[in-house]
Design a protein that fits this description.
Number of strands: 0
Mean pLDDT: 83
Low-confidence stretches: none
Distance between the termini: 24 Å
Largest sheet: none
Radius of gyration: 15 Å
Strand content: under 5%
Order of helices and strands: HHHHHHHHH
Shape: globular
Length: 129
């Protein structure tokens, strides 16, 4: 149980989102272009996190079906930001597999003229927390 609480706290820390603000209105799911391919819908992510059902999230195909288009962020009246919760859960899964943080001094080795700079900035922002 303590490990589950640590995982929930870690998701909240990485995402910077308070899932307890979710009122289950479903506006995020209604705007999601991947809705039909998800087994756990965007409006359900907050409930899974609040209930400590992290293993179910980790096993969900929804975790990887999210396009990170942030349509759900725009529609959420309570600023719950489901895409950020989904991204934080993804990071937790990746880190549990042994892949952890990206440090600034590791970036030069990753540079490739074919990669867009935005990708590197996004990766650094994501994996420095």
């Amino acid at each position: 149980m303590n490990n589950v609480k640590n995982q929930v706290d870690r998701i909240r820390q990485i995402s910077g989102v308070n899932p307890y603000k979710c009122m289950k209105c479903g506006k995020c799911s209604a705007s999601c272009p991947s809705f039909n391919e998800m087994d756990i819908k965007p409006h359900q992510f907050a409930s899974y996190i609040m209930n400590g059902e992290i293993e179910a999230l980790a096993a969900s195909k929804s975790l990887w079906k999210c396009l990170s288009c942030f349509a759900c962020l725009e529609r959420c009246p309570r600023d719950v930001e489901p895409a950020k919760l989904i991204d934080a859960a993804r990071q937790l899964v990746v880190r549990q597999k042994g892949q952890d943080y990206l440090k600034a001094d590791e970036i030069p080795a990753l540079l490739d003229p074919e990669l867009p700079q935005q990708l590197l900035v996004s990766a650094f922002r994501r994996y420095r927390r």
